[in-house]
Amino acid sequence: MRAFDLNTLSRSAIGFDRLAQLIHDAQRTEAQPSYPPYNIELVAEDQYRISMAVAGFDRSELDIEVEGDNLRIVGRKQKVEQNTTYLHRGIATRDFEHRFKLADQVKVVSSSLDNGLLKIALVREVPEALKPRKIVIDGDNNVQVLERKAA
After folding, report:
1. Which partner for 43 in 14, 47, 82, 135 could form a disulfide, CB atoms 3.0-4.6 Å apart?
2. Angle in degrees, CA 63, 49, 40, rounded to 5
3. Alpha-carbon distance 67 to 64, whole Å?
4. Chunked in runs of 10, what are the mean pLDDT values of the chain (151 residues)?
């Protein structure tokens, strides 16, 4: 993969620091964790759900944290002494940490743990000021809003 120097863009573009940082972050080649498996679903137009298979984890062993535009899900399995001899061990119970970058105006509204699936509900709430609006073309300096549409 080819590396691009974004410093020249940063010098000539004012206010696009966040865009340059996003491009820089996308170029990093860190492998995304594959454990535990998860789905990201579109429930409705502005509603999403993350479903994560966390079999064997208790509510007290899971931690969900939102900081800025980052969603972090951590699972830390309690260490217990077991004298169990496994003939086959296929259920993984190792610790994990997943990070998701949330888009602007996306908020976490709820979470639940049922039958080994951790479900996190997200919603995109666009403020009225940011929704598209139709403007009447008038000869005066008056701006008249005809209608607002959902983004």
Report:
1. 47
2. 95
3. 10
4. 56 55 62 80 89 91 91 88 82 86 88 93 83 73 57 53
pLDDT of residue 48: 92
Q: Which candidate, 27, 48, 37, places its Cα nearest to that of 73?
A: 37
SS (H, E, C) the chain: CCCCCCHHHHHHCCCCHHHHHHHHHHHCCCCCCCCCCEEEEEEECCEEEEEEECCCCCHHHEEEEEECCEEEEEECCCCCCCCCCCCCCCCCCCCEEEEEECCCCEEEEEEEEECCEEEEEEEECCCHHHCCEEECCCCCCCCCEEEECCC
Residue in 87, 99, 81, 92 with CA at minimum distance from that of residue 116: 92
Domain range 32-126, its CATH number among 2.30.30.140, 1.50.10.140, 2.60.40.790, 3.40.50.300: 2.60.40.790
Q: What is the model's pTM?
A: 0.65
The predicted pLDDT at position 55 comes to: 87
